[in-house]
Design a protein that fits this description.
Layout (H helix, E strand, L loop, with lengths): L2 H23 L1 H4 L3 H15 L7 H32 L2 H8 L11 H38 L7 H32 L5 H20 L2 H7 L1
Helix pairs in contact: 1-8, 3-7, 3-9, 4-6, 6-7, 7-8
């Protein structure tokens, strides 16, 4: 670990952990995000289903959400399998990267293992977040099945909305881990690449969650 490696890793962690903390814990910022706007739409969805006895469309929506979440959770397992294989082949990785004129491959096996270990940590976290989101969407589908028809069951609908919103929040956390996992991949090439990739991912996440046309449409 050189000084530049420490700086790059600190910037990466500040972007990943700091962004998550600010957007999820600071209320004045969170209310301006696309996630918060979708929370309100999910609440309206659960209240709206009180007026219909046939809820095939609602269960189909939950099934679609579970499918996309399960796909990403399965993909994270495949990624972890590839990372385990890379962990055992530091010489091959260093030889491939040394062919790039501007790359600074890890100088030792320990440095290689540290970079692959960071990637493994990120995708393990993504797996746990996505599988927990999958379970919560499953719970939400059961709650929908138990909600009666009519305004008298509004409290049950609001409970289902809370579970759906929590599931979406964990899904978003897992998806964010994918973004920063791509940034961490740049550390294998060069510490400066990690810094640039971290800042690019941070900017892109902020743009999509706070300044996108989708966010403006949902907020309306």
């Amino acid at each position: 670990m050189t000084l530049l490696d420490f700086i790059a890793l600190a910037i990466f962690l500040a972007c990943w952990v700091g962004y998550a903390f600010v957007t999820e814990r600071v209320h004045s910022i969170r209310v301006r995000s696309v996630i918060h706007a979708m929370d309100e739409h999910r609440r309206r969805w659960m209240v709206a289903l009180l007026d219909r006895a046939n809820r095939i469309s609602d269960t189909a929506i939950i099934g679609n959400l579970m499918t996309s979440t399960g796909f990403l959770a399965n993909t994270s397992i495949f990624i972890l399998g590839g990372l385990v294989a890379l962990l055992a082949a530091p010489e091959l990785g260093q030889r491939v990267l040394s062919a790039l004129p501007w790359a600074q491959p890890p100088a030792s096996d320990a440095a290689w293992e540290l970079r692959i270990g960071l990637l493994m940590f990120i995708f393990v976290r993504a797996f746990f977040e996505l599988t927990w989101a999958l379970r919560q969407f499953n719970y939400c589908s059961i709650l929908i099945g138990g909600i009666g028809v009519g305004a008298a069951h509004t409290a049950q609908a609001l409970v289902a909305a809370k579970v759906a919103n929590r599931a979406a929040r964990h899904f978003n956390t897992g998806l964010r881990a994918y973004y920063f996992g791509l940034a961490a991949l740049a550390w294998i090439v060069h510490p400066l690449a990690l810094i640039i990739a971290s800042l690019v991912v941070l900017r892109e996440l902020h743009r999509r969650e706070f300044r996108s046309a989708v966010r403006e449409a949902l907020a309306e």
